[in-house]
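We close this part of the discussion by returning to an individual protein. The amino acid sequence and the backbone structure tokens for this protein are reproduced below:
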Amino acid sequence: MGNTRIRIYGDKGPPVMVLHGGPGAPGSAAPVAAGLAGDFRVFEPYQRAGAETPLSVAVHIFDLHGVISARCGGQRPALVGESWGAMLALAYAAQYPETVGPLVLIGCGTFDTACREEMIRIRKRRISDYIKNHPEHSPDLYLPFQEQIMKWHEMTDNFHCEADANDNLEAEPFDMRAHTETWNDMIRCQEKGIYPQTFTNINLPVIMLHGSYDPHPGKMIRDQLKLYIPQLEYHEFEKCGHSPSKEIYAKDDFFQVMRSWLREALGKLHA
């Protein structure tokens, strides 16, 4: 934990931890963190990189617990997770529900095979439809699917993003080793019945913020999570994909909804 790189936005208000996606995409949550800075004291910790020690969900929980203990002065921060970061927020809150406050899940990842298969189906269809209209890219259809996703993820995942003033903060290389090791362990945890089953420990306010165009099937993920988190709220944005903080048609509404919900939830927590 002592070597964890952290960006801090704002110096007043209740603490909020913003967790990046990937896994292995450090800096990707910068637009979310910067957009919350006016009302909150925002921390954006970089998750541990791939190294000689294999990464796991438990390692990331350990690191996050250290950051919260060191930075929040005994206050219970909100956790705002983007994509994989939303999954980490849930895993952390299931283990340490007494140390955190409300959870915001942005474009939350998947917790079962059915949701992942639906996400793959959507992405394959979008790539195929695009290439039908751009036959110069037809050789890409013969690439392994993971290579197709790496090349075309902006097209499959986002509705219409704009360049953001915080893009210069995001210039971090994608950590494929961290991604592979962490994601493989998350799948192992799901197969062992750890997630989402242990989410019954979470008695905190939780909201999913999801784009209607996001290939992660929001309503399917919501319905599964509500079996374990019955208080879960859900808000879907039209003309919005996997990056609502940068989506032209949804960005303003996204930040308005998130700020309002966090102010109310944190106000009740710290009253």
